[in-house]
Every structure is written in structure tokens, then in C-alpha cells.
Amino acid sequence: MSDILADKKLELQYPCSWEYKLISYTKDDVMVAIKECIKKEYKLTPSKTSKGGKYESYTLELLVHNEDERVELFHMLKSHQNIKMVL
């Protein structure tokens, strides 16, 4: 299945609303990461807490103007020390 998707490029009409799923330890950690990485209006919605309660996930929604911006934001969030994972 992944081989089928490997040759496909995501086709989006920009600007568009985009969502990132952020997984971290606490909401405070997520807020620090967003403050340092995101310089525009956004919406943050709590999602789930892991079964053991160690991690929390949040949906970050914002407007992206092109693919470069979308990918750059992904990498900035992914590399932030407070973020465990970005989906």
C-alpha cells in the first residue's frame, strides 16, 4: 500500500486550512512550541490523552499559503524539543 502512495504527490489548492496533530507531555509544552514556531493566527483543540496519561495530543489548525510554508511549519514543530511527534 505504501508503494502505491509513494508516487503520489499531495495536490492542494493554496491558501488552505491545514491541521497538524501535535503530541507532547503537557499543554504548556505545546503552547511554548507554538509560540516559538507559529507567528500567525491559529486554532488549538485538545484531542486525546494517552492510555497511561503520559502524552496529550492537540490539533493545530491554521492557514497555509503554499507547500513550502506547510512543510517548513511541520519541520519546525517536529524539531522542537517540547513536541514528541507531529502528524
Q: Please tell me what the overall shape is.
A: globular
* pLDDT averaged over residues: 93
Poorly predicted tracts of residues: none
What helical percentage do the residues reach? 25-40%
The helix-and-strand class reads alpha+beta
Counted up, domains total 1
If you had to describe this structure to a student in words, what would you say it looks like?
- This protein is of the alpha+beta class and 87 residues long.
- The chain has one domain (10-86): ACT domain (Alpha-Beta Plaits).
- The chain is 33% helix and 34% strand.
- The chain has helices spanning 2-6, 27-37, 67-79, and strands at residues 16-24, 42-49, 56-64, 83-86.
- It has a four-stranded antiparallel sheet with strand order 2-3-1-4, with helices on one face.
- The longest helix has 13 residues, at 67-79.
- It is globular and about 35 Å long.
- The mean pLDDT is 93.
